[in-house]
């Protein structure tokens, strides 16, 4: 059975299920990531305050950034602003654009060895002459707040505790917030990247969904999606999934961020058609995106707690 078209959001710790169904011709419930992110920021402020009181210092996030990418500059500024809001200590290791691989590796290793640093974010993309895979091997996986280290990927694959990439973790949090139960449901993940598609599939499996991973070589994508109660899309192609490809009443998580020629941002799902077919849908912008940064701080607190236990 597809998800009910009307789903009650979770506010605080209270959860309620709607006792009735809404007319199936109504538009999808929009999963409001902005409102949810604000709720989480309030919770995280309290957790950061508690951490400071217990440890005598705030959790510290260090961002390692190589100069040269304007979008990275904007993202790092947003992370700094969020840290300031929440009371998290922020440190930026800003390397010149012509930095060598050795310099980057040494910076990552040095931050990993620094006990004052609880979480590390290696900002992507890196310049073409630098290899992210090499740098990541010098990162302490216990401080890997972006969930990109192979050790965290392996732990997640085994169903063990791990620092999970922020975007799929945020998607799962949105489903929980709106009481969208995935147990026993058929789900499809469109996209197989190491930071969104694959971890999203693993998180859904751990939540007892039956999952199909689709990608660029999947024939007749719509035939698969129309069999699914939940569809998560992270393919980097605007309007790849349209409303006629969805099972009526399905829940849809759109992780796509595509900048159009006019400067507008659209997802991987065609919103106009999908909103009439889906039961629940994340808008772009304003859906999964706002939750991602907040999950980064959630990972930082998890890493800081782990460091407190092992230091």
Could you explain how this protein is built, in words?
Among the domains are: 56-153, 3-Layer(aba) Sandwich (Rossmann fold); 178-290, Rossmann fold (3-Layer(aba) Sandwich). 39% of the residues lie in helices and 14% in strands. It has helices at residues 33-55, 70-86, 101-113, 132-136, 150-157, 166-177, 197-206, 221-225, 271-277, 289-310, and strands spanning 29-30, 60-66, 89-95, 119-122, 186-190, 210-214, 230-233, 251-254, 258-259, 265-266, 280-281. It has a six-stranded parallel sheet. It has a three-stranded parallel sheet with strand order 3-2-4, with helices on both faces. The termini are far apart.
Please supply descriptive tags for the structure shown above.
disordered N terminus, alpha/beta, three-stranded parallel sheet, six-stranded parallel sheet, globular, Rossmann fold, 311 residues, 10 helices, 11 strands
- Please list the strands of the largest sheet in the order they lie side by side: 1-11-8-7-5-6
Q: How would you sum up the global shape?
A: globular
Question: Mind telling me the CATH superfamily name of the domain at 178-290?
Answer: NAD(P)-binding Rossmann-like Domain
Radius of gyration computed on alpha carbons:
20 Å
Q: What is the tally of helical segments?
A: 10
């Amino acid at each position: 059975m597809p998800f009910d078209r009307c789903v009650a959001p979770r506010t605080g710790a209270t959860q309620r299920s709607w006792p009735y169904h809404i007319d199936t011709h109504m538009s999808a419930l929009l999963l409001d990531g902005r409102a949810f992110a604000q709720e989480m920021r309030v919770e995280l402020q309290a957790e950061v305050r508690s951490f400071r009181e217990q440890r005598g210092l705030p959790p510290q996030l260090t961002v390692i950034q190589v100069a040269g990418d304007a979008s990275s500059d904007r993202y790092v500024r947003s992370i700094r602003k969020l840290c300031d809001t929440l009371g998290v200590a922020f440190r930026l290791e800003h390397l010149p654009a012509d930095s060598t691989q050795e310099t980057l590796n040494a910076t990552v290793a040095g931050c990993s060895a620094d006990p004052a640093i609880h979480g590390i974010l290696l900002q992507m993309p890196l310049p073409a002459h630098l290899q992210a895979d090499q740098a990541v091997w010098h990162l302490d996986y216990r401080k890997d707040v972006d969930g990109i280290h192979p050790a965290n990927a392996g732990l997640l694959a085994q169903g063990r505790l791990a620092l999970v990439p922020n975007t799929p973790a945020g998607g799962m949090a949105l489903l929980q917030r709106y009481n969208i139960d995935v147990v026993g449901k058929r789900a499809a993940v469109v996209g197989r990247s190491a930071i969104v598609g694959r971890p999203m599939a693993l998180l859904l499996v751990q939540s007892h969904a039956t999952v199909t991973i689709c990608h660029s070589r999947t024939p007749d994508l719509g035939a698969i999606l129309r069999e699914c109660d939940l569809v998560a899309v992270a393919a980097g192609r605007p309007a790849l999934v349209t409303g006629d490809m969805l099972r009526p009443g399905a829940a849809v998580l759109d992780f796509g961020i595509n900048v159009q020629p006019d400067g507008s941002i659209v997802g991987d799902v065609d919103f106009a058609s999908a909103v009439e077919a889906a039961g629940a849908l994340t808008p772009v912008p304003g859906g999964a995106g706002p939750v991602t940064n907040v999950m980064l701080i959630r990972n930082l607190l998890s890493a800081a707690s782990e460091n407190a236990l092992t230091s």
